[in-house]
Amino acid sequence: MSLAGKKIILGVSGSIAAYKAALIVRGLVKAGAEVKVLMTRAATDFISPLTLATLSKNDVTTSVHDGESWNNHVELGLWADAMLISPATATTLGKMASAICDNAIVAVYLSARCPVFFAPAMDLDMWAHPATQRNVELLKAYGNHLIDVGDGELASGLSGAGRLAEPEDILQILSDHFADPGAAAGADGRVGAQEIGKGLSVNAEPAPQTDQLPQDLAGKRILITAGPTYEDLDPVRYLGNRSTGRMGIALADAATQRGARVDLVLGPTTLSATEEGVNVIPVRTAREMHAASVALWHKADAAVLAAAVADYRPRSTATQKIKKKDGPLRLELVRNPDIAAELGEDKKAHQRLVGFALETDNGIENARRKLSSKHLDFIVLNSPSEEGTGFGHTTNRVQFVTKEDVQDFELKPKTEVATDILNALVELL
Ligand code: CTP
Hints:
Structural class: alpha/beta
Bound molecules: cytidine-5'-triphosphate
Oligomer: single chain
CATH class of the largest domain: Alpha Beta
Largest sheet: 8 strands, mixed
Strand content: 15-25%
Number of strands: 25
Shape: globular
Radius of gyration: 23 Å
């Protein structure tokens, strides 16, 4: 176990499976971790705080303020190397997904900068409900790691999906995370007991040899957006674009090989990262990409925004398939959030922001306008008119545009363009 000396916050919410928290605390402490437990009021109906305090050898927090004194959730959030919410009830998942901060677990969760793992437990219909599933997807999109539910007998007497993962599997997932921090989640942000022992790999392809590459991004965390976004019109149709995500995926692989911790917020695509360490957060819409990127930006040293984000979405998504009628169909579109502009607005002195631009005319002039309006450090400019460049191609010819300079590059594979971009980024970091 790679848990010795690790600081773990365990959040326990009110499910019958709360009793298993005792086994988790005991396992963590036995493995040499330091554990601080937070409980919701409902959890105290299922297991006594005294039990968990005794096993963890630390006080248990059940409220943001206990009478006179205020429990510093920010401090606790910064203290931890990992946070585990187990069991996570439907209510707790909903509160975490919506930032409803009325208990100590959600307060610490919202302040935490460490990786967060959540292990749901509930009855099968509660688990299958679209509202629960939407919250799980949102939490994954925010970069949290789902420890998948098990299948079997439930407290209700029914049988199906919804059981808390076994404590020894949860301990193993945490231990694996510390053994290889980049590999906590699979391509879908999900870790599960079934994956233990197989290595939590994102892809079947072997990772390229990295020992000859400079580790000049070691210790840096980089957020990358890639791929298209799909804006749904109805249950079967969407507005999208031809981006494949190839450029952003190449960047994510290359940055990982150079030692960075990479969060890849990836729109719908058939391509995937080859490096196991890339933390992939799959998203569909611009708003999901926006939510995930904003949530990850404060943890990042740099972001490279390679996604082709839809600027507009339908004002509403029909719940039923839109039927054809005589005459034209009018679609009303509304603006999507501009992720680059928002991250730029919120950029701290140490952070670097790189954007892409696809311009058909007045490329450099337009790129410079974007550079300053979005507070970017440089723009990778490509022109769609040239053979072998842009969407769907494996090659690209780009220019790097800064306030002062323009640097021209040859037509080359996107993997090499990724190297050029990271070289320029390393200079800035
Ligand atoms: N971008 C973003 N969020 C958006 C739109 C764009 O993060 N909603 C990012 C892209 O990932 C890219 C850069 O901003 O890095 C592109 O800038 P943008 O002004 O949106 O480019 P175009 O869509 O080509 O702009 P315009 O229509 O103004 O030419």
